[in-house]
Design a protein that fits this description.
Number of strands: 16
Largest sheet: 7 strands, mixed
Shape: globular
Strand content: 15-25%
Helix content: 10-25%
Distance between the termini: 22 Å
Structural class: alpha/beta
Radius of gyration: 21 Å
Number of helices: 8
Strand order of the largest sheet: 7-8-9-6-12-15-16
């Protein structure tokens, strides 16, 4: 691949393989290189992609964005091998917890595995889905918990009133708590930690059974919530059985606005070429503390958390979003919101699962 076009800072040499355990490598420091082998699974081939991520079925017919792979500067990472991944999952439970971006990653993984001739069944469960693979006796679960902590709605005083949102920042999401003994826990959060999603911090954040803060800064509430998550991991999870991951924020690439203000990205056809060009092309809808708060919480934890810090590698991929191709069977009209936050499948999230696979492979005896 030495002669392929690279998008990102120039790569130093020599390279060492990530499988070499005596050599450390930051897999998240690298660039996108053109790769004509293409994706793990073909557009239209996976029945488990939700409509909002299924760009092919929504009419996107330019496939150039599928011909890039992530190349770390200091090492090579193995291509995703579904058979090896399935062997590592044999008899185990992998649970994704978080918002729609983690669902993006979950769907990518089950589609990548589905391409390797398995018999998979998707089941609806409380607050999410479970993908069961009978021949490997394993399950890959997605729990929708955008805040990670407990979130619920209570009825208003009258039937016609809008339900009242509350977020219990001192208690882990109750469905999540049931999966404390899973073999792999993969968390993300951040997208919903903003004033619009939290009623501007007014009568929204709760601590204890009956104390609701009249007003609390969202950053302060987020800090408390991430500490709650960290303490739950430390006090509940068996580090000898369970590997814990946290997935970083991903980039947003709107031009001329945002989701509800006519922002677009449907004209993008290739990655951003270099780090300097990222400035001005990556929208920064999140305050810096949205990224930093989980990192601070993880640094204080006793149980190690593997940080899949995919923020930088997604900065370059302005070409990978659903944009106008997010509603199968419906014709897009000017003025309809474009999605420049989530990602087409197949597409960029497949690289996140390649990094997950490489991480598991490097720590699993007998699979290298």
């Amino acid at each position: 691949y030495a002669n392929k076009t690279e998008y990102g800072p120039p790569s130093p040499s020599p390279r060492t393989r990530v499988e070499n355990k005596s050599t450390s490598c930051d897999m998240f420091d690298g660039s996108w290189v053109y790769d004509d082998i293409g994706p793990v699974y073909q557009p239209g081939s996976c029945p488990y992609i939700g409509g909002s991520f299924n760009c092919y079925k929504s009419g996107r017919l330019d496939f150039g964005y599928l011909n890039y792979r992530w190349q770390p500067h200091a090492c090579d990472i193995p291509r995703f091998d579904g058979k090896k991944m399935l062997e590592m999952l044999r008899g185990k439970k992998m649970v994704f917890v978080g918002d729609s971006l983690n669902r993006n990653m979950w769907e990518s993984l089950i589609c990548s595995l589905n391409n390797f001739n398995i018999t998979g069944t998707r089941l609806f469960i409380r607050d999410g889905f479970s993908f069961e693979i009978k021949e490997y006796e394993c399950s890959i679960v997605m729990i929708t918990a955008p805040f990670i902590v407990k979130h619920w709605k209570t009825a208003g005083q009258r039937a016609v009133q809008t339900p009242i949102d509350k977020l219990r920042i001192d208690e882990i999401h109750d469905t999540v708590a049931k999966y404390y003994n899973a073999d792999f826990l993969i968390f993300n959060t951040g997208q919903w930690w903003n004033p619009a999603r939290t009623n501007n911090g007014e009568n929204f954040f709760q601590e204890g059974d009956d104390f609701v803060h009249k007003k609390m800064d969202v950053e302060e509430a987020y800090t408390k919530a991430m500490n709650t998550w960290g303490e739950w991991i430390d006090n509940t999870v068996n580090k000898n059985k369970t590997k814990v991951f946290f997935v970083g924020l991903t980039a947003v690439h709107y031009k001329g606005g945002e989701w509800f203000s006519n922002g677009t990205c449907d004209k993008e056809r290739e990655p951003i070429k270099d780090a300097e060009s990222i400035k001005g092309q990556v929208l920064e809808p999140f305050h810096p503390w949205v990224k930093n708060t989980p990192e601070i919480a993880m640094a204080k934890m006793k149980i190690p958390v593997i940080y899949l810090n995919i923020s930088h590698l997604t900065d370059y991929r302005k070409d990978g979003h659903p944009s106008r191709y997010r509603r199968p069977g419906s014709k897009w009209r000017p003025g309809v919101s474009q999605d420049c936050m989530h990602w087409c499948l197949p597409g960029v999230p497949d690289s996140w699962n390649q990094l997950l696979y490489a991480t598991l492979l490097s720590s699993s005896k007998g699979y290298v």
